[in-house]
TrEMBL record:
Its EC number is 5.3.1.1. Its main location: cytoplasm. GO terms for cellular component: cytosol. Keywords: Cytoplasm, Gluconeogenesis, Glycolysis, Isomerase. This is Triosephosphate isomerase. The lineage of its organism: Bacteria, Pseudomonadati, Pseudomonadota, Gammaproteobacteria, Alteromonadales. The keyword Amino-acid biosynthesis does not apply. CDD domains: TIM. One of its GO terms (biological process) is glyceraldehyde-3-phosphate biosynthetic process. Signal peptide: none annotated. The active site is at 91 (electrophile), 163 (proton acceptor). Pathway: Carbohydrate degradation; glycolysis; D-glyceraldehyde 3-phosphate from glycerone phosphate: step 1/1; Carbohydrate metabolism; erythritol degradation; Carbohydrate biosynthesis; gluconeogenesis. It is an enzyme of class 5 (isomerase). The gene is tpiA. GO terms for molecular function: triose-phosphate isomerase activity.
């Protein structure tokens, strides 16, 4: 019997403000979070404000190094010490804009877990890759690099977010059927290695999720919640997405 808990996570990217933390904290008090996990990934300087306001918060990335002369980087140990439970790793914007390879993403995943953070591993194909029928092989490779390096057991304390690159910030959401197909592929792939991990791992969908489409997406059997970009900057829309997840929990 699967025991996975739905999750709604807001990735603010390079957006937000101290004021938005306050508004969001007030709004999220209305989200009864007992059945789902609700969390925010604000920019680094807002993390302590979010935690002080009782928002569960995580970082948008962590360094793949422990410490040292890496100007501008932030290490996982510090993020954990601050009070965070989660970090994103391998978001497609980190991969495409900052050149993070699958190997670097796997190192970040490892550093997160070594420092007691739960990594949310982002995977997903580009539009061209989908058109070429490569969706499953791209997603499989992104997962394999982590599994080959750390073993399938490393997935126990992790979350996977399927975010098709063509759906991010474009308003082109994957249909519930398209998203479910890839989520099912991911769960089956893990199940081939370990059934219990596959049944219990939380799989999020991300890419133009809003308060109009979240209900149907979250109703899919293998979609356990969402990683929300733009709509997570609008407290009312974000609350309404949380409520959809709650209804489907
Ligand atoms: O990248 C995303 C979340 O990590 C999705 O962004 P949007 O919801 O703005 O498409």
């Amino acid at each position: 019997m699967a025991s996975r808990k739905p999750m709604v996570a807001g990735n603010w990217k390079m957006n937000g403000s101290v004021e938005l933390i306050t508004t969001m904290a007030d709004t999220l008090k209305n989200a009864s979070n007992n059945k789902i996990d609700v969390l925010i990934f604000p920019p680094f300087p807002l993390l302590s404000k979010a935690l002080e306001a009782d928002i569960v918060a995580g970082s948008q990335t962590v360094s793949h190094e422990d410490a040292g002369a890496f100007t501008g980087e932030v290490d996982a140990k510090l993020v954990f010490e601050l009070g965070c439970k989660y970090t994103l790793v391998g978001h497609s914007e980190r991969r495409s804009i900052y050149g993070e390879s699958n190997d670097v993403v796997a190192l970040k995943f490892e550093k997160a877990q070594e420092n007691k953070l739960i990594p949310i591993l982002c995977v997903g194909e580009s539009e061209t890759q989908r058109e070429q029928g490569l969706t499953e092989s791209v997603v499989a490779e992104q997962l394999n690099v982590v599994i080959d390096k750390l073993g399938v057991a490393a997935l126990v304390n992790s979350v996977i977010a399927y975010e098709p690159v063509w759906a991010i910030g474009t308003g082109k959401t994957a249909s519930p059927k398209q998203a479910q197909e890839v989520h099912k592929f991911i769960r089956n792939k893990i199940a081939a290695l370990d059934m219990s991990i596959a049944e219990n791992i939380t799989l999020l969908y991300g890419g133009s999720v809003n308060d109009q489409n979240s209900e149907l997406l979250f109703a899919q059997a293998d979609i356990d919640g969402g990683l929300i970009g733009g709509a997570s900057l609008k407290p009312d829309a974000f609350l309404s997405i949380c409520n959809s997840a709650q209804r489907n929990a």
